[in-house]
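The following block was generated as part of the benchmark described in Methods. Ligand: guanine.
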Amino acid sequence: MSATLFRARLLSFTRAPEHIDDSGSYRYESDGALLVDDGKILAMGDYATVSTSVPEDTVVIDRRPHLILPGLIDTHVHFPQMQVIASYAANLLEWLNTYTFPEECRFVEQAHADRIAKAFFDEFFRNGTTTAVAYCSVHKASADAFFAESLRRGSLMIGGKVMMDRNAPQGLLDTPETGYDETRQVIADWHGKGRNHVAITPRFAITSTPEQMERVQALAQEFPDLHIQTHLSENHDEIRYTCELYPDAVDYTDIYAHYGLLGRKSLFGHAIHLSDREADAMSEAGAVAVHCPTSNLFLGSGLFPLRKYQRRDKKLRIAVATDIGGGSSYSMFKTLDEAYKIQQLLGERLNPLESFHMMTLGNAEALSLSDRIGTLEPGTDADFVVLNAAATPAMALRMETIRSLAEELFLLQTLGDDRSVVETYVAGRSMKPTA
Ligand code: GUN
Ligand code: ZN
């Protein structure tokens, strides 16, 4: 296969921006070239320079005036909840019991899981998201469907069979032993196959007995390189109930710490209402708090104190995510738009450079995967998106008055959605579905 040279404007972050004019936090090429071959980025730079030293048979794809960014990364989603989005519930626990658990029961059927897996990848690529960290259902069939589809599409995905052995319908329960055995089987079948990564996935402390948590701990010890994902401190009723179920723990975070689940590969969905002690424990372990803005607003869970967590002496590592289907949009633009509004309500600012850093390099760093994704650096995987900030009449009109890159990014975040994603490339292959 010959190399491909993409000509467009290019943007790739190199570190977290400190303010809205922080041009030292990214590389921007106004007439850029991205050289791609065999699923990898070979070169990134200005067109005049890069184009002089490419192989003779290189194909040139001209995407000017569009903007190429690394593929977007979503660090917390529920693959079996595509048909749960827009369910009318008063709060998290009602939403789980009334809509979400019954829906997830359907994933015992391989055919259903296979069908939703196809729709899932279509929808994520349509929105420019090339890596997602997904909860499958409790059924191994759901993890098989998810990873098989990822392998077919060549994507870097992280996923896990959910472990849950209480406080849910019978059709959604495993046991400490079957949860352990099936997770081991999912790891054997899928971890490292293609670009797939398996995550150890206890749903949350409410749905796992102490006996199951002990088996989760055993998995974490046997597979210390794997990601661990769960939920933490999302809703006040959830926190109260959790602490009743684990009366010996000093707080919610301490439950996970007790079972050895706090570490640099641990992703804690929501983490909105942490005490100082909990935030210290998270920070000392290097664990990641995953902010899910559209979900937190949709379920009325609370306002994520982003700046408070970033300003403490013991800072938290933070990622950002859609949390489909508690979340209400597949778009990382919409997700960061809501994150911006949450900070407005807290009297804080979230500038667009930070937002676009978070959905690319920031999330890659939170996943300890920035040597592969979240950047356009040569040597990394060729996952990238082609964006058009003038994709709709309203955006085109506003674009007429845009004067800077930061303003353009803010427009993309505020009015953009899947229509602004012209193309999505996964390992160098065009993947955006047309319908
Ligand atoms: N806590 C436990 N399970 C879930 C879930 O599926 N969605 C959300 N938002 N919170 C949870
Ligand atoms: Zn979740």
